[in-house]
C-alpha cells in the first residue's frame, strides 16, 4: 500500500515525466503545457517552518531590499517540498515586514533555484522550478498581492541550470534558459509598457551536435542595444558565445570561445 503523501508526490513526478515526454515546441503550445504542471499543493497548510538555503535579496529601484526564501511547511505537505516566501523593507535600510508565502506551488526537486527581479512597472516577478518545469508569478497592481502561478514555458533539462533574467538599459526584461532539439538556448522578452511576456523564441543550434548548454554565465548589452551571451556547457569546461544580429529580431550563429572570457 502506498501512503497518501507518497502517492501525491509520485503523481506529481509522473505528471512532470509525461510533460517532458511530450516534447517542446516554441510558442504558445509550450507555455500552455507548462502551465498545467504549476499547480498548487492542496495538502500544504501554508505554515512557515524551517528554512532551506539562503535568502535571495533583490534591491528595488527605490533602494528597498526584498528577500525571497524557501521554507518547508509545518506540518509537511504531501509533496515534502519547500515553498517560496517573501518579505520587504518598509523603507531603504529599514526593518523588514512579515514573511508571506508567494505561491502554494512547491519548489524542486533536483533544482531549487529562485530568481526574482523588479520589472519596469515596479512589480516583483519570481521564477522557480517545480516538478520538472519552471513556474512564474508576479505582484499585482497596488496591494493586490501575488498573481496566479503559471508555467513560464522555458524548460531546461535537469542539471542544465535554471532561468537567467536580464534587465536592459531601458527596463525591458529578457529571460534565458538552455534547451534541446533545434535550439541550444531559448528566450522570452517582456514588453516593459504592459508587463506581458512574449512567446518562446530560439537562439539556434550549436555547431557541435553532441554539446549541450547550461544557463548563461553572462548576459551583456552592447552599446548599439544588441544582447551578447556567454554560456558554459553543462558537463564540461567549454564556453560558447552568441550575439543578436538585430535587437529583438534575430541571432548570429553560436561561436566556440577560446576561454571563459570569450575575448
From TrEMBL:
What keywords is this UniProt entry annotated with? Signal
Q: Which residues form the signal peptide?
A: 1-20
SUPFAM superfamilies assigned: Fucose-specific lectin
Q: What is this protein called?
A: Uncharacterized protein
Organism of origin is: Streptomyces luteosporeus
